[in-house]
Amino acid sequence: MSSQKRVKNSQSQGKPSQSSNSYQTNLSAWKVKEDLSDSKSISKHGQNNPVEDYEHADDKAEDALQIAVRYFEKGPTKTSRSKDKTLEKHLKTVENVAWKNGLAPEGIDVLLNVALSGKFGSAVSTQILKCMIPATLISEDSVVKAVSWLCVGRCSGNTKVLFYRWLVAMFDFIDHKEQINLLYGFFFASLQDDALGMQPHLQALLSLYKFFAPALISVSLPVRRKIYFKNSENLWKTALLAVRQRNQRPSPEPLKLMLGPANARPVKRKWNSHSVIPVLNSSSCSKECGKKGMSLSDYLSSNGSFPLEQLKSFPQLLQNIHCLELPSQMGAVLNNSLLLHYINCVKDESVLLRLYHWLSQTLQEECIWYKVDNYEHGKEFTNFLDTIIRAECFLQEGFYSCEAFMYKSLPLWDGLCCRSQFLQLVSWIPFSSFSEVKPLLFDHLAQLFFTSTIYFKCSVLQSLKELLQNWLLCLSVDIHVKPVMNSPLETTLGGSMNSVSELIRYVGWLSTTAMRLESNSTFLLHFILDFYEKVCDVYISYNLPLVVLFPPGIFYSALLSLDSSILNQLCYIMHRYRTNLTAAKKNELVQKTKSEFNFSNKTYQEFNHYLTAMVGCLWTSKPFQKGLYIDPEVLEKAGVAQYKSSLNLVYHPALLSYAASFLLQEWPEERTVNLSSIRGKKWNWYLDYLFSEGFQGLKLFIRSSIHRSSVP
Amino acid sequence: MLRVGPGLAADFIFCPVVRSFSLQYLCLETMDSCDTPESTPRQRASSRLKDYFIGATPLQKRLESVRRQTSFVPTPPRRKIPQCSQLQEDVDPQKVAFLLHKQWTLYSLTPLYKFSYTNLKEYSKLLGAFIAAEKQKGLAVEVGEDFNIKVIFSALLGMKGTQRDPEAFLVQILSKSQLPSENREGKVLWTGWFCCIFGDSLLETVSEDFTCLPLFLANGAETNTAMIGTWFQKTFDCYFSPLAINAYNLSWMAAMWTACKMDHYMATTEFLWSVPCSPQRLDISYAIHPEDAKALWDSVHKTPGEVTQEEVDLFMDCLYSHFHRHFKIHLSATRLVRVSTSVASAHTDGKIKILCHKYLIGVLAYLTELAIFQIE
């Protein structure tokens, strides 16, 4: 920014100044010191200024202003005879610039300092204060410095009063307020003790605070009321309007910063909101009304409740958790991770109800596919959903409002709008009875699933995997906290397990159909097997009594896949199924008594069936011996009369290239690749080769399921 | 409005020049269904439905069913015909008169947190200060008596369906005249009221920290509604949403309000349908003599004191088929946007005007039901 300015300055140098009529200010980019970084100041050079002459005139005025400010900064030179004249000249310069264009934050900083130090006398201080009109913002530091002058007692009562009036009028232009908020104790003490309280404006200020926080003000105020701050009496009114108009020209972004959120409210948009999520604010009149009889010192030393605005760290939260003031609008917690911690452990139902109502309504109101012509707010809605999802991930828990929202909105969803967000919301559906949720949610989702692209299908499977994981985590925590489940929806563990197994079977059905629709896409199969990697490990990983096997459509597609990583993944899953089932069987034998959760023999039979098929294909070269008969004539016609070995580890289409590479690597001198030579010792070497190529799933499967004595 | 006889129907359907027209058809002849007094209502019902659907294309049926499905209203099989309730007798008649004959914009409102009826005076002051502050953003605020507006909160005692319903209350913004000689109270700038009539289903789901007044009605400038709503949202952590009334609910209103017994009718029963076509939409207004409407209703009505979904459908279907017979327009393919009766009139935008004092509670009960559905 500064380099840009310098270039412009040099360009305009040497041109005659013809016009003094400037309509645009450069003052905001003005610097007190040459080396001052102007990162804070807002340059308006970004805007087009078609007439350079105007700019030049401004530059000149700017120079004069710089000189004037330096003059004030240095202080009066006592010996100079022309002192009064110079002072008057510089004062005039400052006034002119200030009333025309306003002053940059740095200028206000210096001049405020001068005014309150009183080094030019009371009259000059007053004149300076009257023209403290910001071009953009007022830095908080300047105000704090100014207040510190009040303590020294160098300025007159009138100057103090004028300063307070100025502070009230300009409050919205101060860039930050944290430090100033800490000074309220000083303000009140100063107003009450310095007998300044009798000034009508300050009385007004005090009575205003007394009105909202009666406990804070101890001084007695006259009951008779006057008009204290009549608009027409406001010294800076016209200047403020001018500032506001000036500020409205540039892009709305800095405007938001300057005037506070409420002013940037777009016309005809929502009521209160600059943003969807309310601002964190602990002031709640309804609560204040009840609290009377607290002294000022009590208030200032925060003996009462702990204000949210001060909550900055986790230890603070822990120390004050018993006396935390809650936000006036509970929706504000979404943007505050500390309060999310609080929400997570609070047992107060009304806190959760407030959040529920707010979130439900906001989702409904903001949802863009409810609106015909409101797609311009799409970005905002996406951001809002992102915030919700972040909060859900943080809490590791879904909001009921989101579930209710999905019931209503899913039937109208086109599957495109905010897809990623919506599917993430699906994965955070709180645990409940699957059969109840199915018609409201999953049936609608299935319609979209079947009619959408393969990428959509994969995304849905991904989010269903996450949903399963979230449900399992939730149940495994519950089961350890209390031996008997006490959820409102499922009273028994059996019921809960039932719900989970229904979800798994539902996904199995979706997957099988999707495989047919997408002609056995390997890409899709990866996502399906990812899901089953979760499913096969439920018993051990989550300590829950549940083993559900995959449907044949998935198993055989994976076994006969052309893709080696699919085959490897299948081996891994089979290995984990085996481990889980073995552990379950062991537990059954230990407990001896038949419990509700012993798996039926059918599960074991199903597993054994798959295992036989796999070993038959990959290892023993006796595939599909049971239950499958193919006419030899058909096989002969197809040219695969010797089919038996064609699915073993050497000839399996997914592994054939590995077998060839293995032979080429080990026996490079051989002129022909003789696959049938891989047997006996070579078979073992081949296995080691496969393992070294990353077939860890296969390795685990063979180690656990095959006795190596049976090497063919 | 142009009065068009049945014979003209074919002309305007095929006339491409007509972009927007308004058709008022006064139903003076008796309806077909009334011609056969010997048949029971049930028999008539089924035959009429059959007649109606035989001519319908599968697409029409599909459209019909989709429309019903996507209007998320849970279909309670039956609702009570509004009756004059005992509780309503306690309501200050002056206040009731104030609520009638005004157009109100409807909002649904989530339960108010820590609202207290004992603090109404305090709220008046705080809201007054808030409005003054909002109006002068950036400049210092005047205090207390010095606003030129006045805010009054007052309870609407007795405005409830059951004893469990929380008390309704009214908020008024009055302008104060600058001259002391003039009337102190000044004129009403804005009015809004909060109520809950038969809100049992909502009352059961919240704890005692909350006050359930799910229905909010406002009359006055939208900017004022926004400002006051903002104050309520900030103070009581509640949420206002505009309450639109879909065509499905409008037809329920039409049926229920037609069913009300009236001593004398104040207004014509009128329906407004909208045909979405560009560049200007086409509105079809259909006015019926209220006694004819009542006669039609009586002919389809069979359950004493109650209105069922079947009856509502039948009532509307009769209107549709009658209109079709004369004008060859399928109103079922257009959108119902307004219903006016002697009891009340409602627009799909969520605007309502209540005319009849006797059925005030009944009208509000249905609106409360819709508001509760929206916030649940």
Tell me what the structure shows.
- The complex is a heterodimer of chains A (712) and B (376).
- Chain A is mainly alpha-helical and 712 residues long.
- Helices cover 58% and strands 0% of the residues of chain A.
- Chain A contains 32 helices and no strands.
- The longest helix of chain A is centred in the middle third of the chain and has 28 residues, at 454-481.
- In chain B, helix 8 (247-259) packs across helix 10.
- The two termini of chain B are 42 Å apart.
- Chains A and B meet through helix 10, helix 11, helix 13 and helix 17 of A and helix 5 and helix 7 of B.
What's the quick description here?
Chain A is mainly alpha-helical. Chain A has 32 helices and no strands.
Identify the notable features of this structure and list them briefly.
heterodimer, A: mainly alpha, elongated, B: 376 residues, alpha+beta, 15 strands, globular
Kindly provide the radius of gyration of chain A, computed on alpha-carbon positions and rounded to a whole number of angstroms: 38 Å
pLDDT averaged over residues of chain B: 76
Q: Output the number of helix runs of chain A.
A: 32
Largest sheet of chain B: 11 strands, antiparallel
Organism (chain A): Equus caballus (Horse)
Biased composition (Polar residues) (chain A): 9-28
Family (chain A): Belongs to the CENP-I/CTF3 family.
InterPro entries (chain A): CENP-I
